[in-house]
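## retry 2 of 3
previous attempt timed out at serialization; input unchanged, resubmitting
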Amino acid sequence: MNTIKSIIAKIKNFIIAHKIWSVVILVVVIFIGYKIFGSTAAAQVRYVTATVEKGTIISSVTGTGQVEASSSIDLKSKISGTITRVNIKPGQFVSRGQTLFSVDAVDAERALRDASLNLQMAQNDLKTAERSYENTRASQELNLKNLLFALNSSVAAIPDSSNFNTNIITLSGSYNSSVQGRYTLEVYSCQNGVCISYSGLESGTFTINTNVAQPIGSRGLYATFTSLPRAGEKWYIDAPSPSSNSYASNKKAYEDAQISISEAIENAKENVTTRELALTQRQNALIDAKQLLSNYYVSAPFDGVIASVLGKAGDIATGTLGTIITKSKLATITLNEVDVSKIDLGQKVTLTFDAVDGLTITGEVAEMDGVGTVSQGVVSYALKISFDTDDPRIKPGMSVSAAIITATKQDILIVPSSAIKTNANGSYVEMFSTPIVTLPVTAGSQGFTSQTKPIEVPVEIGISNDTQTEITSGLKEGDQVVSRIITSTATKATTTAPSLFGSPGGGNRGGGARTGAVTR
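## retry succeeded, writing output
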């Protein structure tokens, strides 16, 4: 014990007498300890990807409010025009959807008629384009097949290098098959004299009769021998044969035709695609025309009683045309000026209630404030929503959440909204030049590592909701985009080196491992 105290005393005396050297030694020891036992951190980037798919997006605007027991609704026209018919009077009971006022719709009816006619023309154009495509494809394929026959008919009999007789066979007829290959003719002695055995494209035998054309198989070729060949001699007939006089011209004609025929078929197919797009546009135009025409009629938003009639035939349909009273429940919600600009009367609404767990009912926008209310610099508008069904569990004064459907698109390209990024040039997504190998779904949320960074691909977007966004150009179905990036930092386990002067409690401490992750 005294020896240890003596050693410690000597070390302390050395430090006091040699302060500079002591500091240098301490720094060196700390540096070496850090290198050996210190912590190192390495950042790792993992990419979570998603596949561009076709699907449906329902875009909506949400708001909150309360249930009212009953209320009156102002009847307004979506279109400013001359009122042609008034179908109601005060005190009259009306049913939901009943036409109350009619506005001059001559232009809208003409637009609907034109849209219907244009749709019919587009349907006829598509049928014509489809027939043209089928006719073009059939005729061009037949033409190519005939040219292939012509190419294959370029044949010549080539003697084997070991033949004694090399110029005693003449070919006639025309090879009439699209199958390419070789006949091998081999001479052998047979009971009837000298025979030919042929194989390759077809197999068979025949006895040679000099100066008589004899068939080689069933594809139109004949062979005539001017004299008898010797047993063991061979001839080769290729279909087509580069040795034929017509081979070069027939080959060029066939290759040129392959290009032109492919272009003709592709053009016909593109014409079909163009007509399909035109048909879709005409169908959408017809839907728009029907919707526009419906705006020229003011209908009852629910069952109720007409409280007043202000609009008369011949008047201009502006402002309030009348009021209707309902005993059914309504929901009143408020929206800000940005959201209310997306709303139209009659749009469908999904309603949920905090007090009634699991209850969801539908309704539609029955009334909208024409002038907003300003509170603390924020402009808000009140909307009244009629219920499609009445549920006894819904009580006046209950809180209600409303999701107003502003747009619905089907069979469109969609990606997760998290994949869309923006810069000064517009919207873009990140993709890898070579798609990352897809792992099982259970591992997909962990992401993938990559030695190369993704590239930016500009895209044009359409409607979106909280989770998905429509892609109108820049991507195709099946493309793989980066939907999320996870950056993780791993800290290596550390062990604290023993102090020269001991540690509190006389022990050493061990470090632990920790990880952190940042997702963007």
